[in-house]
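Task card 7
Instruction: Convert sequence to structure tokens.
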Amino acid sequence: MTTRVPRGFRLAAVHCGLKSDPARSDLTLIACDRDATAAGVYTQNRFCAAPVLLDRGRTPSAKIRAVVANSGNANACTGEQGLRDAREMARLTAQACGVEEAQVLVLSTGVIGEPLPMLKISAGIAAAAAQLDADDPALVAAARGLMTTDAYHKLAARQLRLAGQDVSLAGLAKGAGMIGPNLATMLAVLLTDAALTPEDAQRLLSTVVDETFNCISVEGHTSTNDTVLLLASGAAHQRTLDGPNLAAFEGALQGVCGELARAIPNDGEGATHLIQIEVRGCARREDARRIAREIANSPLVKTAVAGGDPNWGRIVSAAGNAGVEFQPGRVDLSVNGCRLFQQGAPAAFDAAAISASIRANRQTDIVVQLAEGDCQARFWTSDLTAEYVRINSDYHT
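Output:
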């Protein structure tokens, strides 16, 4: 993948000893050569991690200069020491980059409840600061530095022309398990050289996250560290975007976030299928999303897809358990384009052919059509396999 790093940003990643494998980087540093606009969206788990508490108090902002992220240790449920360590990560990064401590945002992901080894973190920040670069390998390395149980790094990008200037947008993310809205054990950092006000950046990010990262699940477990950051250097424009240019940027942001969001359940721990669920014909969008989420989080639906079983009863049962009022006798259900259930009753279909289509394709498409209105929602999840159980039973030890 060739992706132009947005102007104004440099990135690096190093191994500092948080992960046992020296070949796997575990500390990522992103620096901006000017004050950047920053916005953030964070986990809704009451046990939010120390970096989340720190970043919430610093975004939105017009003066952020760096983001430091460690993987392998979540710095969550670590009390006052965890907060001191998060602030120390920011201080060390500020010192290494020549900026103010309040201009640094902090991300952490990994095992919950263990203190950060700050000597290793300190050495890692210094090493990363010495390697900062603005080329594609640096961007890939930064994405890899975020990974925990991820099978692969996640990047997405768009280039567009706004107000007579070329604008770049690049996003990096991690996530494979403990994934469930609102947000999940996922981190995402979105970088652009467009010029945005803090208010516009926060509004756009909140809107786009609600349509993308808040519409994914692996097992429905909202984590302690979930964070999505948007940083805008403004290096492409002297004036902030507005009007049609701002709307075009929002479309690009939607595209990048959607691509990254789908990549997370596609990389779900032990997953063999990405499941796309569309619920149509609801009176309210939130009703459609509640039904889609209920289907996505059903272990019975997920295991059926893992086994290539077109068991429509599990899907309609989950839909009926979402707490949404609808007319069951007017519901249709399709899997991979084949009608399995029509107007509240079984439809004739070739079970062997549908099973084969599920097994043969990485993505399984489920469409539920109601008759209550014009609202719809789309949701992504993964199937549930024995490998998921193995990964999560072995992860801490």
